[in-house]
Design goal:
The chain is α/β, with parallel strands linked by helices. It folds into four domains: about 80 residues, Alpha-Beta Plaits (2-Layer Sandwich); about 160 residues, DHBP synthase, CATH 3.90.870.10; about 140 residues, Nucleotidyltransferase, domain 5 (2-Layer Sandwich), CATH 3.30.420.360; about 180 residues, ATPase, nucleotide binding domain (Nucleotidyltransferase, domain 5, 2-Layer Sandwich), CATH 3.30.420. It is built from 22 helices and 32 strands. Helix 17 packs across helix 18, helix 19 packs antiparallel against helix 20 and helix 20 crosses helix 21. The two termini are about 45 Å apart. It binds zinc ion (ZN) (2 copies).
């Protein structure tokens, strides 16, 4: 029997053809394999059982970095054949993009680095078809060395012969290098081992190192030294927001974090994200993640990190090289001017970084990886989306921005770009849009953006729509959150979206954030929402939870109920005047702000902090609470009134009940609200998304309650529940729009 097989997906640049050749040789199958513009194709000949097994193993044993979007096969006439060959690539047609994400160091390359008899012993830029830089060094497609940052490093003879040998692990691996022909380490006037020793000394002395990593500069400091970490916080102007920690090895990681088998496997995977893990022991300095029972942990994922961490022999804080909220620096001069005031020393190399790619962050919940930030290892892997209309470009929101390009049945979501508050952030968005279009050679025909008129992403979309004469779909923020989850799981409307977050611009021009949306076709119906309450000072309330508390009490209990001890007398008087006269006190239905208010009232977190800090404090307190006692919302015509909840909570407080119990009852009340809204909507499929569902406890309680009542619950996994998913959701809604009109 002979089969013609075509494989679509990310199957080039990931060692797929050598894998096929080895598999065929192992099974005694005859034929050939080659790259095509659309992926990989092959003809294989053998008995029917053998070919069945081959097809199975093709997917089951594929190289870790490969992503298969589809396999098609058909029977063709047998031929005289004597072996299995890798044929030259088929050329002629327009190249179809197939770009792997950056891949973490593989075990074989790591082993070579530790072997003094190997050419690449201790070489910090080693890689092969299974590992190494990809998206962060590719300038344009098709993916060949001259179009990567490796163009400046011609292969030496030894590397060249490995590159040409079909059964070698480095066959056609574009970025391969060795100490003879590849990039080298630099630190000031020092090179190679001397540069590394200087960096090691810097870190051991408790000083701050700026490391030119894979997709950008990182700041590193001894994570076991309270003083060193505090110094980094001061210079980086970052008060409490947790830092991630890179551990030299698994043993060291397990001495500071609890990690399940799935979590360890995820940390070791080719994507190698930062994972939020439960913290144990006293190894890590408290200043790394103040007041937080979790730790963002990762393992060395490049040869350079492996070498450096082994040299230092202790865990290091590893955070993006930037000032708060700005994008990462990627160029030497840029890094000097932006990080010069933070870092005591620089460890760099002469391989250019083409585009910034930050570390990905996620957590494992019940065996499922859920990303909070999608970047290295994941971007720009395509996500299959059955849509055959004109290409759509979606611009995202304002925070944790990503851009999505939807074309030919696939959505390509950019890496996490950060916030658009700074000119640097806005510039990065514009460059990423241009980069994506150029990279994939796609002309968008429809644009999509947020409904918010003042987002920098909206203004950029408007400009492009005008310049190119394209239609612009303005998509409501929470509708987009629901759409992202639908895009990820292949849901078709109608379904219910319970979308809870900090805030988004509503269709009525008000601030939304506690929504029950019935998604139907390309539109939606707002069938429920939280009763809005005023936020004195507007945006300032986001960073100061007690303002939400005051606004909530004022709304529900009147001026007399808004007393308490959260503010000094004079400040409270000013704020009450603002509320009374409706000055700069926008009303919001945000459940994120309700979290802030409850955290402040229960004494867990009242003062200034980063967004989400109060909600996290409430979540951590609730995890320590026990029992089934719950508060309840009033519910009328879909509007959830927190008044009964607030009264019961204040009463519990008077009775001396602790913050942990209050927090747990509050979480259970929200799960009860989710169920009530779902029962009111009467739709089987329910999406839970929005920033509030980064709270693992809230998500689990809602999921359990809805599941027990027979609803099918869908939650974001690889595309974040926070605003990192907004661009994908906008593209999805715009695609529904296209289907309808
Ligand atoms: Zn490798
Ligand atoms: Zn070489």
């Amino acid at each position: 029997m002979r089969l013609g097989i075509r494989v679509r997906g990310v199957v080039q640049g990931v060692g797929f053809r050598p894998f096929v050749a080895r598999l065929a040789a192992e099974m005694g199958i005859l034929g050939w394999v080659r790259n095509t513009p659309a992926g990989v194709e092959m003809e294989v000949q053998g008995s029917a059982e053998l070919l069945q097994a081959f097809l199975r193993d093709l997917e089951a044993r594929k190289p870790a970095p490969a992503r298969i979007l589809g396999v098609e096969h058909e029977e063709i006439p047998e031929r005289v054949e004597t072996g299995f060959r890798i044929q030259p690539s088929q050329a002629g047609q327009a190249p179809r993009p197939s770009v792997p994400a950056d891949l973490a160091l593989c075990p074989e390359c790591a082993a070579e680095m530790g072997d003094p008899s190997e050419r690449r012993y201790r070489y910090p830029f080693t890689n092969c078809t299974n590992c190494g830089p990809r998206y962060s060094i590719i300038r344009s497609l098709p993916y060949d060395r001259p179009r990567t940052a490796m163009v400046a490093f011609p292969l030496c003879e030894a590397c060249g012969s490995q590159y040409r040998e079909p059964l070698d692990r480095r066959y056609h691996a574009q970025p391969i290098a060795c100490p003879v022909c590849g990039p080298r380490l630099i630190s000031g006037g020092l090179e190679g081992e001397e540069a590394l020793a200087h960096a090691r000394q810097t870190l051991l002395e408790g000083r701050i190192l700026a490391l030119k990593g894979l997709g950008g500069y990182q700041l590193m400091v001894d994570a076991t030294s309270e003083e060193a970490v505090r110094c980094l916080r001061e210079r980086k102007r970052r008060e409490d927001k947790p830092f991630a920690v890179m551990f030299p090895d698994e043993a060291s990681l397990r001495s500071a974090c609890r990690a399940s088998a799935t979590e360890l496997a995820t940390l070791r995977s080719v994507e190698a994200p930062i994972l939020l893990l439960e913290r144990v022991g006293e190894l890590i300095a408290p200043a790394v993640a103040p007041g937080n029972p979790q730790l963002g942990a990762m393992l060395p994922n490049t040869p350079l990190h492996l070498l450096l961490l082994a040299e230092v022999g202790r865990p290091l804080v590893c955070t993006s090289g930037n000032l708060s909220e700005e994008p990462m620096a990627i160029g030497e001069d840029e890094a000097r001017s932006r990080l010069g005031g933070i870092a005591d020393a620089f460890l760099e190399h002469d391989r250019p970084i083409v585009r910034p790619v930050d570390d990905s962050v996620g957590r494992v919940e019940g065996g499922t990886l859920r990303l909070l930030r999608r970047a290295r290892g994941f971007a720009p892997l395509p996500h299959a989306l059955p849509y055959g209309g004109p290409p759509i470009l979606a611009f995202g929101g304002h925070q944790k921005v990503t851009v999505t390009l939807l074309f030919e049945g696939q959505a390509v979501v950019s890496q996490h770009l950060g916030d658009l508050n700074s000119p640097l952030g806005q510039d990065l968005l514009a460059r990423t849009v241009a980069d994506l279009l150029d990279f994939f050679r796609v002309e968008p025909r429809v644009l999509a953006c947020d409904l918010h008129p003042d987002y920098a992403s909206t203004r950029l979309a408007e400009r492009m729509a005008l310049e190119r004469g394209l239609p612009l779909r303005r998509i409501q923020h929470h509708h987009a959150h629901a759409g992202a989850c639908a895009a990820e799981w292949g849901l078709t409307p109608p379904f219910l979206g319970l979308i809870w977050d900090g805030s988004g611009f509503g269709s009525d021009g008000r601030l939304w954030g506690g929504e029950a949306l019935r998604i139907e076709g390309w539109g939606f119906q707002r069938i429920g929402h939280l009763r809005p309450f005023p936020l004195p000072g507007g945006d300032r309330a986001v960073k100061e939870p007690r303002r939400s508390a005051l606004g909530l009490c004022w709304e529900l209990l009147g001026e007399a109920g808004a007393s308490g001890s959260l503010f000094a007398e004079s400040e409270r008087t000013t704020l009450l005047t603002m509320l009374g006269r409706n000055l700069n006190s926008p009303r919001s239905s945000s459940i994120g702000r309700l979290f802030d208010a409850v955290a402040a009232l229960s004494g867990l977190r009242a003062g200034p902090g980063f967004e989400g800090q109060a909600a996290m404090a409430l979540e951590f307190a609730a995890r320590a609470g026990t029992g089934d006692d719950s508060y309840a919302f009033g519910l009328q015509d879909g509007v959830a009134d927190p008044a009964p909840l607030l009264e019961a909570m204040l009463e519990d407080q008077r009775r001396g009940l602790g913050g942990e119990a209050l927090a747990r009852r509050f979480h259970l009340a929200l799960a009860g609200l989710a169920l009530a809204w779902a029962q009111g909507a009467g739709l089987e499929d329910v999406v839970l998304s929005g920033g509030c569902f980064q709270n693992a406890l809230l998500a689990r309680l809602c999921e359990e309650k809805l599941g027990a009542a027979g609803f099918r619950v869908h939650r974001p996994a690889l595309f974040p529940a926070n605003d990192g998913g907004i661009s994908l959701g906008q593209a999805w809604v715009a695609a529904q729009w296209g289907n309808e009109v």
